[in-house]
Amino acid sequence: MTTQSPFPAASETPDFASLQALLARWDSRRRWRDSLLWGPRGLLVGLLVAVLLAAAARLRPLLDNAELLRITLALAVGGAALALVWTQSRRRNLLAQARFADRQFHLQERASAAVEIHQGTLSAPPPIARQQLHDALRAGTQVTPQTLRDSLPLRLNRQDWIIIGLAIILLGMAFWLPNPQLDILRGQRAVATAVAEQAESLASLLETIQENPVLTPAQQEELQQPITGALEALQEGGLTQEEAVAVLSEAEADLRDLAASSDTSALRQQLQEAGAPLAENPASQSLGQALQAGDLSAASAAANQLADELPSLSAAEQAALAQDLAETAQALQNTDSQLAQQLAEAAQALQNGDVAAAQQALREAAGTLQQRAQEQIAAQQAAQAAEQLGQGREAVAQAGQTGQSQGQQASGGQEESGQGQAGQGQAGQGQDGGEGGEGASGSPIESLGNEAATGSAETGGPGSPGPGGGHVENVYVPPLVDLSGEEGIDVELPAECLADPTACGSLLTENPTPLDDEQSIVPYSQVFGDYRDAAYEALDSDYIPLGMKEFVRDYFASLEP
User: Which end of the chain is more exposed for a tag (fewer CB within 10 A), N or C?
Assistant: First the structure.
């Protein structure tokens, strides 16, 4: 009788690689099962984040539909891809695979024990180790393909897909239902684009001024200062439409003030008549003709040349020239007193026979003419820059406004203005001509401004626009009220005022002025600056709704003389 050994024969020694192959196959099946479970969940996470973004986009102007669609696709595909990559790329060590197989297939720790013995973490005699490995392989071969499919099924989770469907429905509703924030978002982006374009335009304008060889460094700095301030404010970002318009309006007003302070148009106009005596004199013909043409640079050169030629003139020619210089000086007395004084000094010196003094006076007059020429160039540059800023301000003010909203505003303004419909018609005509188009907004402030500035369009009274929708020449002022018969209030003055009334103001020294035929209109140019400055100061210091600030600035900008 023979007994059979419980241990396999040497030829039947089990191979540990066979157990590894089994564990790897089961782990692969596990990864595919996890991929079908976590892939949709990654997709669901991406869709839920997109739903939150869609909800936020309806509360605040964040995204338009096209951007939301792209973000939704990116989140959905990205979430699913990340989940798949995570499940497929996750690699477990051999012992973890064995422990999973023991739990999943009820191997009663056979696989993990075989791995621990093979790795040396668990010591066992070789015969026992071989027998244990053989037992593990035998138990593993009993895991049939059907058992594997039942234990690790490759199927989708129905609940996850139900939630995915709900998320897709919510996103579809977000795309289909009108979003009230879209118009606001488009307006904000249009304003941001317009502001960025104006910042580039201002930077280009600064370079143009810097590269102008005719301007002096002082003039360049003076012209660049308001533009630089506006550019820095625009580049800081975060400006609202009203704030950006205010920045450009302020810079535009500063440039117009510079242009007005350096304007030589009145001088050049007066020179057309004042230069006639010098143009008729052969000795000073070139100077007179340059003055009549308004070419101040050429007139400066001609004055220097005449100063050099004075010694070669005869006494009679000097006397005639002195008479012509005196007439020219007299004609310029009320326009340019400095130039008139220098020409008068030259005439007086010639009459006294002091040629050297006459030459010196003519050279000083030449310097003054050159200075006026520089001022003329600076005024032209400032006016061009102001015009460019005005166009930029208009572009920013109009950014984001649709034709429909403008039409609604215009109709609303007509209902509010009542009797001011004719005034609105005048403002609407100005839209084709320039900045007066802001009047089409129809706001209460605009309607009130039209009535105050234009008066009655039907009667054509004082202050109404001239032909072509130009600016008014006079502005309406309320009629004066005679308060002479009204009872006043007694005020006790300090002792020093009784002793010296001039120390307490001019009112104490004035005499009553009887009311006569006072006028209810004043020149437009005399009051516009005060009105505009007061309005801009009120915009900065007082509380005014943001929607109204734009109309106030546009109204005064459209009335620039």
Answer: N
* Number of helical (H) and strand (E) elements in the chain, helices listed first: 23, 2
Supply the DSSP symbol for 65. Answer: H
What per-residue confidence (pLDDT) applies to 10? 38
Percent of the chain topping pLDDT 90: 11
CA–CA gap between residue 478 and residue 519 (Å, rounded): 10
State the Cα–Cα distance between residues 339 and 393, nearest whole angstrom: 39
Residue 475, SS3 per DSSP: strand
Q: What is the pLDDT of residues 62-110, one digit of tens each?
A: 888 898 999 999 999 999 999 999 998 888 899 998 899 889 888 888 8
CA 259/CA 382 separation, integer angstroms = 5
Instruction: Answer whether 533's CB lies under 8 Å from 516's CB.
Output: no
The pair of structure tokens assigned to 279 is 């143009």
Query: What is the H or E stretch that residue 433 is in?
Result: helix 421-433
- Residues in Cβ contact with 436 at an 8 Å cutoff, skipping those fewer than 6 apart: 427, 429, 430, 469, 558
Question: Any alpha helices (H) in 177-240, and if so which ranges?
Answer: 181-210, 217-236
- Which whole-number Å values give the CA distances from 349 to 336, 366, 368, 450, 463, in the listed order? 20, 16, 18, 58, 51
pTM: 0.52
Q: Give the least confident one: 260-269, 482-491, 513-522.
A: 513-522
Residue 295 has pLDDT above 80, yes or no: yes
Alpha-carbon dihedral angle through residues 519, 523, 529, 532, given to the nearest 10 degrees:
60
Mean pLDDT (whole number) for 235-248: 84
Render pLDDT for 296-318 as a digit per residue (tens, 0 to 9).
888 889 889 888 888 888 888 88
Amino acid at 489: I
State both tokens at 427.
């403002």
Angle of helix 355-398 relative to helix 217-236, nearest 10 degrees, comes to 10
Q: What is the pLDDT of residues 223-234, one digit of tens each?
A: 888 999 888 888
CA distance 397 to 191: 8
Report whether 32 contacts 154 (CB < 8 A).
yes
Whole-number average pLDDT of the chain: 77
Residue 549 confidence (pLDDT) above 70: no
Identify whether the C-beta of residue 368 lies closer than 8 Å to the C-beta of residue 374: no
Q: Are 36 and 85 in contact (CB under 8 A)?
A: no
In the three-class reduction of DSSP (H, G, I as helix; E, B as strand; rest coil), residue 476 is classed as strand
Show contacts of 10-15: CB within 8 Å, 24+ apart. Answer: 12/134, 13/130, 14/130, 14/133, 14/134, 14/137
